[in-house]
Amino acid sequence: MSNRPSPAAVKTFSMVNGLTLLGVLLQAVWAGLFIDRAEREPWVTVHEIGGFVVVVLSLVTALLAIALLRRADPALTFAAVGLFVLLVIQTGLGEGISKAGSQELLVSHVPLAMLIFGLGVYLSVAGARLRRAMS
């Protein structure tokens, strides 16, 4: 069995990861629309729904990496699974902030968001590198 994934597999992984990364970026935009604002509830709701969508997209990204890319690039697979785990943790922190009113969790929530974004960018670069290596 070849260690090389099909070009379609790599393209699919890259597209889903791109959607995940776009969702992470939108999460930052939506958070900026409600932090320290009086009319915050609609944007908090959008942020919560967006967080759920990003977690689902990152799960799909991780599953694609495991199923299609693990032999070709184990580091990429590890990073994709790590991104999913970090997003689940991030969602838990967000729930603690919004539902339990634990504002002190923002000290972890915001820096973790930066780490998540960086990891998503890494996955985009690694996917592009894998696509180039296949041509």
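The above is record 1. Record 2 follows with the same two-line structure.
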Amino acid sequence: MTVQAILARKGRQVVTMGPKQPLREVCETLAEHKIGAVVLIDAHGRIAGIMSERDIVRALATEGAAALDRPADAYMSTKVVTCAESETTDQVMARMTTGRFRHMPVVREDRLIGVVSIGDVVARRIELAEREAAEMRAYIATA
């Protein structure tokens, strides 16, 4: 299964913010949309970074509540690993596992077109395994 298939099911809506938004607003956005990360887009529409719940916890642990008034770019992850729609769930899962992150922006021609999470990838892998098991049971039953 490809990233394109995941996006076809879940949709391509992506919550984005600017890197200068206060961390407090990032927290509010994550809570409002019930998501675990937000992609931060620069003035040219390119990915500047990504801010996850983990980044926020680190900021609060380091600076306390004062971090909430600082801009997101003070804490965002700037080495954003992206993928293409043509990549497989196996490829994406391997990169997420190796990099120890849970959200991966999907890009086409350097433009953000979606986000996949480890939950999306795992759900599709489980679905595929269950389908293969059902097909194997059906094949055995007819043999």
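The first helix runs from residue 3 to 10.
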